Structures are given as C-alpha cells and as structure tokens.
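User: tokens in, sequence out, please.
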C-alpha cells in the first residue's frame, strides 16, 4: 500500500514537472523582445568579454549568467531566456524539497505547481497573443527570475540551518548567506530577504545559532557580494547604482493604471499589476490560502514566509517607481503561503471527517455493549463542517487548475506580434526603410526593433510611416491626429495586431515641419 502511494505521489510530481518544463520553455523564441531584457542581455555579453561599463544601475550576477549562456549557446535573447526558464524550474524544485517535510508531499507539490503553472504576466492583455505581453515575467530574460531563485534558496537554506543538528547546520548557514549575496547581486530588491533569515533563529529560539551561524551567513553574503562586484569596481559601481536609483525614485516613472496616468506610482500599484498579471481566479486562490495559513495554524513556517514577502511589499509600496514585473519578487513566498493554507484546510477536512466517523463507530459500539439495538432506519447526521471544507479545498484545486489551463493555452498560442512583425508588414505595403513616427507607444516597446529608425517625438523630418499604439501615457499629438483624419484619402491605413499604421498611398513620405504635416511624393 505504501509503495502504491509513493508511486502515485511521484507520478504526480513527474507530470507536474514535465508540464512546468513545457510552460517555461515552449515558444520562447517567439516572445517579443523587451527593452530591459535587451539591455541585460547585451550587458551580459559585454561583461563576459571584459567590458563592464553597461547597465551599472543594476547588480551584475544575472547578467553574468546571461552572458555566459550566450557564449555557450549563441548571442541573442534565446540563450538568456533558457537561463531564466531554468531559474524558474529550480525555484519550484527548491520550494518542493523545502516544504515537503513541514507540509507533506502534496502540499509541497501544490506550492511548486502554483509557482510553475500559474500566470504572472508582465503587463496587460497577456492572454491575447496579439498583445505581445509575456504571459509570464520569467519567459523573458529579466533580472527577477535569477534574483527570485537565489532568494528562495536563501530562505530554504536558512530553514535547513534551523532544522538540522550537528556541524552540518553551519554549511546551511553558509549557503543561506551565499545565496542571499547572489540574490542581492542579481537585483538589490532581494536585500529585504535578510529579515526573514535573521528571524529564523528567533522563531526557533536558537540564540547561539543567531550569533555563530549568523556570523557565518553574514560573512558568506559579504564575500559573495564583493566577488560579484569585483570586476566592476566595488565602490564606484555600488555608488553609481545608489545614485542612479535615488534619482530614478525622485523622478518617478510614468505608469498607466486603468486609464489614469501617474508620474509617481501610488502605493497600491504593485497589487494592481499583480491582479492584472495573475487574474481574479488566482488572486482568490491566493487570498483564501494565505488567510487559511495564518488562521488555521500560524506556526514558524507561516511566520517565515510572511517575513519573506511583507518587507518586499512594503518597500515596493513606498517606491515611486513600480513596473509591471516588480511583483514577481514576492510571488514565490505568497504562493508558498497559499499552498500551506490550502494544505492545512485539506488536513482539517480529513481530520473532521475522520472524527465524525470515529464518533459514529464509538456510539454504535456503546449501544451494543448496553444491549440497546441500533436504529438502522435513521440516517446519520451529515458532517457539515467536514463536507464544507472538502468542497472548499476541491474548489481551490479546480480554480488553480483553471489558471493552469489558461496559461497553457496562452503559451501554446505565443507568436511574434505587433512591433515584432511591423517591419515585415511595412515591406508588404511598399515601405522598405525610412524613419517611423510612433505615437501612443512608449520607446521601451519599439526601441528593440526600430532603435536606429524610430522616433516618438514630433520633430522636423521625413517619415515613411506613422504608427499608433495603445499606450495611454503618451497621447497622440493633435497635429498627427488632425493629419490622419484630414488626409484619410491620401493615406493607406492598416492594422498590425494592436498597432494602427498609416503610409502615404502610392508611395512618398510624411514630412513634418513645425506643427504641419504634409505628404511629399
């Protein structure tokens, strides 16, 4: 019986893991290029070839890995995306190995599955293939996938440090510090994970470990940090990063939230992006699971997970810059907490049903011993609480599976879209080369494809086409709007997914002079 149970458990793990590999890796090359991704990939290539001057506003470790991947598998975004995919898969594996002892096989698998198989989009309309929005933050080579992997390893190693006896626990303390150093040198946001690591000895009341193991972890983190920054120049690179990020936060960053544009992101921005990126069903699953974890049994594991993500949330809430993918930093810990909560609801349901069955058996036995016949014609009372809990857990599993299905469909339909195929469509309409005027479309979207021949500022010159996007942060200039309306007969208009394009009918250019636009053949 135990062997059969183990076979079922590991077969389920294998199925979930295989689906995770497919979700992370399928059609990676078809995903549109993100401007930040391109910066990190190019910087990584330069780093491994001895030039360490690019993108010093962010730490280097993830870019080292992206550069090394390009050396091994070819230059471009595809190899770094495989690194990001591997980081996601390893993050889920670490969650599974870590949580298997405290919450059991199925709870650990649920945590890994939530991480591997649910959407975390980096923007809006990710389930529409025409939007070119990644349905998962980690399907492009940003800094977050690598940072998150090392942050989760740091917390898991810290937990092993507390739950391991003997000298081996010092190795876990060293691993926790090293992983923290790698996380922080991938993206500095991970620095807040240190609070959860420091809290662990307090929760376990191991004060000697706080001093000795804490010292080992601290030294490991510092050494790792210094080694990672050594090629860049430790003091100068860190000083530049701090100065840059301070200016960035002081200046804000335009975000469009539900049709309203903000220069300085409101405190709730990250939660808005998370809701848009994961969907209302997964939000409900996470909220119910997290509340259950805190209410049913708020033990050391729950407090550790809460300590891992709450400081990150607070920091991002206080920041005036909040981009669509930032929430990914705290998602693994929130999803793990939700899995713990749902697992304990399931255990509660099982125990309640078992208690009611045991109560009925004891009652029947007592009547027989007293010589009183049972009453076979009278049905037993329905265990309302147990049935309700079973129904709730079943609903949670079905809801989670529905988000997995939606993600799988989105991944299966990923294709080059919008800006990625614009040049091909322009050639099909007789436009081969020339400068493109972009309106209502931010530079981070078009620059990876039209860096040398694009402009989103209405300056004097000749333009081969006008392209209008859907970014409310950058309104269409009144002169451009009036021109496309007044010259509708002289312009050929067509759509490329979410982009609207105008080119002079029969050839020619759009000439901008001051606030006047004309067509010259």
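Assistant: Sequence out:
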């Amino acid at each position: 019986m135990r062997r059969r149970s183990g076979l079922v458990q590991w077969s389920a793990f294998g199925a979930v893991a295989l689906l995770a590999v497919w979700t992370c890796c399928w059609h990676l090359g078809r995903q549109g290029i993100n401007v930040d991704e391109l910066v990190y990939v190019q910087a990584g290539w330069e780093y491994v070839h001895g030039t360490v001057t690019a993108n010093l506003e962010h730490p280097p470790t993830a870019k080292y890995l992206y550069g090394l991947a390009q050396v091994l598998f070819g230059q471009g975004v595809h190899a770094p995306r495989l690194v990001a995919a591997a980081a996601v898969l390893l993050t889920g594996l670490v969650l599974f190995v870590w949580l298997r002892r405290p919450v059991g096989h199925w709870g650990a698998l649920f945590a890994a599955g939530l991480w591997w198989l649910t959407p975390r989009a980096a923007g809006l309309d990710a389930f529409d293939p025409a939007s070119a929005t990644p349905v998962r933050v980690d399907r492009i080579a940003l800094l977050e996938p690598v940072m998150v992997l090392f942050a989760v390893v740091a917390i898991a190693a810290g937990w092993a440090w507390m739950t391991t006896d003997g000298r081996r626990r010092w190795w876990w303390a060293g691993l926790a510090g090293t992983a923290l150093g790698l996380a922080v040198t991938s993206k500095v946001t991970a620095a807040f994970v240190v609070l959860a690591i420091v809290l662990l000895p307090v929760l376990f009341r191991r004060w000697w470990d706080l001093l000795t193991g804490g010292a080992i972890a601290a030294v490991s983190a510092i050494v790792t940090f210094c080694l990672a920054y050594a090629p860049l120049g430790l003091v100068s690179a860190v000083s530049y990063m701090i100065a840059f990020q301070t200016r960035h936060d002081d200046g804000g960053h335009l975000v469009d939230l539900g049709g309203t544009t903000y220069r300085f992101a409101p405190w709730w921005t990250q939660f808005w992006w998370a809701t848009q990126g994961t969907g209302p069903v997964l939000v409900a699953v996470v909220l119910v699971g997290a509340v259950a974890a805190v209410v049913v049994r708020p033990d050391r594991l729950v407090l550790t997970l809460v300590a891992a993500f709450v400081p990150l949330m607070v920091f991002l809430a206080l920041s005036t810059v909040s981009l669509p993918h930032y929430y990914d930093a705290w998602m693994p810990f929130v999803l793990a907490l939700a899995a713990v909560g749902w697992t304990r609801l399931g255990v509660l349901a099982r125990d309640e049903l078992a208690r009611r069955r045991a109560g009925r058996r004891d009652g029947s036995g007592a009547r027989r011993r007293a010589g009183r016949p049972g009453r076979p014609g009278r049905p037993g009372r329905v265990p309302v609480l147990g049935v309700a809990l079973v129904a709730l857990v079943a609903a949670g599993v079905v809801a989670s599976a529905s988000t997995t299905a939606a993600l799988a469909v989105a991944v299966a339909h990923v294709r080059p879209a919008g800006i990625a195929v614009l040049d091909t469509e322009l050639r099909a309409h007789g436009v081969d080369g020339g400068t493109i005027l972009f309106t209502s479309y931010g530079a981070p979207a078009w620059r990876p494809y039209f860096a040398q021949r694009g402009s989103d500022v209405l300056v004097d010159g000749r333009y081969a086409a006008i392209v209008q996007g859907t970014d409310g942060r950058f309104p269409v200039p009144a002169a451009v709007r009036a021109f496309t309306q007044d010259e509708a007969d002289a312009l050929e208009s067509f759509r490329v997914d979410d982009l609207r394009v105008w080119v002079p009918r029969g050839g020619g250019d759009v000439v901008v002079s001051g606030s006047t636009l004309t067509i010259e053949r």
